[in-house]
């Protein structure tokens, strides 16, 4: 039987509670709406259509935090950063840094294992237009708190994009809130170091705002900060 404070058991319980959450009516409707009208490339697939729990190594020292669940990524596959181009970028970078056992993240049963890393989103449901409201952001922040408490070895929160940075700094209660920037670091008094990174959205990766070399450099810095 697992010890009461075993991170894997705590995170598994938390994951079940996240997946059952219905606190944001607009997002409950949207995640189902998206599932009922998939694009042709996913026609016939059974979508997860629920909130997506965090995924990774319960002994993680680095947590990669995204904006929100992707409509046809996590909302389809049921796993964070899985089945969409942003997930491809993140997992390839984690693999190059030795934090993932393979460079791909295609579906929840593909066997992907993260080693020393955890992944999740500030908002666990897919929002319309990829834009959660401030109320939805704040309603979901309690899950981030619980995850960070359970990840007892966590040292770095690698935050993808300004929205997730805003969520992370609100969660941390930092005053004044540090401005988001690529490579910006903010050490919390009692908690992980926040490390900013441009979001690997198509808009950023297709235009060269974020390159793989830039992402690799930030992940390498996260690994460096996370060393015991
Ligand atoms: S966004 Fe978060 S709080 Fe809102 S319904 Fe989804 S899991 Fe629940």
UniProtKB/TrEMBL annotation:
Protein known as: Type-5 uracil-DNA glycosylase
Pfam families linked: UDG (PF03167)
Organism lineage: Bacteria, Bacillati, Actinomycetota, Actinomycetes, Pseudonocardiales
InterPro entries in the record: UDG_Type-4/5, UdgB-like, Uracil-DNA_glycosylase-like, Uracil-DNA_glycosylase-like_sf
Domain Uracil-DNA glycosylase-like: from-to ranges: 53-219
Organism (species): Saccharothrix longispora
Entry keyword annotation includes Zinc-finger: no
SUPFAM superfamilies: Uracil-DNA glycosylase-like (SSF52141)
Record carries keyword Chloroplast: no
UniProt KW keywords: 4Fe-4S, DNA damage, DNA repair, Hydrolase, Iron, Iron-sulfur, Metal-binding
Entry's family note: Belongs to the uracil-DNA glycosylase (UDG) superfamily. Type 5 (UDGb) family.
């Amino acid at each position: 039987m697992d010890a009461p404070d075993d991170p894997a058991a705590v995170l598994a319980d938390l994951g079940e509670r996240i997946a059952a959450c219905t606190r944001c009516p607009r997002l409950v409707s949207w995640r189902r709406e998206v599932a009922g009208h998939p694009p042709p490339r996913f026609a016939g697939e059974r979508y997860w259509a629920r909130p997506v729990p965090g995924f990774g190594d319960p002994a993680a020292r680095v947590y990669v935090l995204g904006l929100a669940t992707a409509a046809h990524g996590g909302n389809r596959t049921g796993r964070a950063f899985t089945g969409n181009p942003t997930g491809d970028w993140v997992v390839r970078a984690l693999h190059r840094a030795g934090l993932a056992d393979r460079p791909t993240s295609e579906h929840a049963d593909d066997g992907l294992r993260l080693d020393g890393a955890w992944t999740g989103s500030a908002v666990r449901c897919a929002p319309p237009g990829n834009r959660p409201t401030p109320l939805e952001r704040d309603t979901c922040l309690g899950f981030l708190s619980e995850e960070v408490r359970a990840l007892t070895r966590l040292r770095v929160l690698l935050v993808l994009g300004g929205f997730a940075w805003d969520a992370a700094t609100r969660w941390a209660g930092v005053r004044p809130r540090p401005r988001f920037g690529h490579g910006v670091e903010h050490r919390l008094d009692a908690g992980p170091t926040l490390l900013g990174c441009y979001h690997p959205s198509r808009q950023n990766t297709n235009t060269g705002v974020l390159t793989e070399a830039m992402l690799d450099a930030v992940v390498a810095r996260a690994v460096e900060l996370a060393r015991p």
